[in-house]
Design a protein that fits this description.
This protein has 332 residues and is of the alpha/beta class. It folds into two domains: 6-142 and 262-308, 3-Layer(aba) Sandwich (Rossmann fold), CATH 3.40.50.450; 144-258, 3-Layer(aba) Sandwich (Rossmann fold). The chain is built from eleven helices and eleven strands. The strands form two sheets. The chain has a seven-stranded mixed sheet with strand order 3-2-1-4-5-10-11, sandwiched between helices. A four-stranded parallel sheet has the order 7-8-6-9, with helices on both faces. Helix 4 (106-119) links the parallel strand 4 (99-104) and strand 5. Helix 1 (19-32) packs parallel to helix 9, helix 2 (43-49) crosses helix 3 and helix 3 packs across helix 4. The structure holds adenosine-5'-diphosphate (ADP) and 6-O-phosphono-beta-D-fructofuranose.
């Protein structure tokens, strides 16, 4: 295989804090290796439209601290179609781009895998999503910041919850993953956490609230992952209040969790993965994702990032169970 000479970089799917730090690292690593580097604007939509922007070291100055993505992002229906991907591959070839780094979530990786296998595009992914739902990396870029943002809100809600003796059902993002809920629930001292990874136990939630009330506790925080049950926090609140007489409110934190300046953890992870992605592509790797694996960097086939949803015992599955245990002992 000929050596890579010109790399493209894009962000795709939901934006996540730290994407800019990853772009910066990709650009600067490419330049350090004597490679040409081009930004693709608006994710796969821009790839199909040929929206390319040459990048140099200066063009990524002062972005490491910024939330969002300076390359913009999108969800692109046309990329699901073979014709859309063929157009994208044609545009890359026309621009002389022979390697592509995509910063996104598992949906973006499914598209990237097809681009690599159908058109031979040399492709490497960097996990960038607040959901932390990707196999092959301990954390995704953006997760840590989103957790801290949600936690700040929960701390504030606790003030008003205590003042009014109210039960708050707080919905956090995560699509089908309970990662954000689990961590903010534990760190925010929630009395209960409802996540998609285990069936909702209405009896247990009610028993927790009643036991607390018997001890004189009058305010409670229940953190609900948006994908835990149909209808999210609202339907959990309705189900619980049908059984118990409650003074309750529902608070849906929403897109605030996607914004803001990335934490040091996300900036560092993004910088490490940006360097690793360019090094991997330059070493001839393709159809893979680079991930933060323990204290090192792991490289996994893209297909594993969404197919091996269930983490192996000893990794995140064990952590999920441990966090649930810790939250249930310390939160009640
Ligand atoms: P994320 O990458 O954050 O998981 P999405 O699931 O919305 O976000 O995916 C982002 C984009 O990736 C989609 O809008 C689409 O363009 C592309 N994509 C997702 N899944 C596929 C697929 N199965 N085949 C082709 N392209 C896909
Ligand atoms: O994947 C990131 C995410 O924020 C999910 O947590 C959430 O379910 C979804 O994107 C929201 O998507 P949109 O930005 O289209 O509302």
């Amino acid at each position: 295989m000929a050596a890579v000479r010109h790399i493209g970089v894009l962000t795709s799917g939901g934006d996540a804090p730290g994407m800019n730090a990853a772009i910066r690292a990709v650009v600067r690593t490419a330049i350090a290796r004597g490679l040409e580097i081009t930004g693709v604007v608006r994710g796969y939509t821009g790839l199909i439209a040929g929206e390319f922007r040459p990048l140099d070291a200066h063009s990524v100055s002062n972005i490491i601290q910024l939330g969002g993505t300076v390359l913009k992002t999108s969800r692109c229906q046309e990329f699901f179609e073979p014709g859309g991907r063929a157009k994208a591959a044609g545009n890359l070839a026309d621009a002389g781009i022979d390697g592509l780094v995509v910063i996104g979530g598992d949906g973006s990786f499914q598209g990237l895998h097809l681009l690599a296998t159908e058109h031979g595009v040399r492709a490497v992914g960097i996990p960038g999503t607040i959901d932390n739902d990707i196999y092959g990396t301990d954390f995704t870029v953006g997760f840590h910041t989103a957790v801290n943002t949600a936690l700040e809100s929960i701390d504030k809600i606790r003030d008003t919850s205590a003042s009014h003796d109210r039960v708050f059902f707080i919905e956090v993002m995560g699509r089908t993953s309970g990662s954000i809920a689990l961590v903010v629930g534990t760190a925010g001292g929630a009395e209960e956490i409802v996540i998609p990874e285990e069936p909702m136990d209405l009896e247990r939630i009610c028993a927790t609230l009643e036991a607390g009330q018997r001890r004189g506790k009058e305010s409670f925080i229940i953190v609900v992952a948006e994908g835990a049950v149909d209808g999210g926090a609202r339907s959990v609140a309705e189900a619980v209040s049908e059984k118990l007489h409650l003074n309750y409110r529902v608070s849906i934190l929403g897109h605030v969790q996607r914004g803001g300046s990335p934490t040091s953890h996300d900036r560092t992870l993004a910088s490490r993965l940006g360097v690793a992605a360019v090094e991997a592509i330059d070493a001839g790797r393709s159809d893979v994702m680079v991930g933060g694996d323990g204290w090192g960097i792991g490289i996994v086939p893209l297909v594993e990032t969404w197919q091996r949803r269930d983490p192996l015992p000893g990794t995140k599955e064990a952590l999920t169970l441990e966090l649930l245990r810790v939250a249930r002992i310390t939160g009640t």
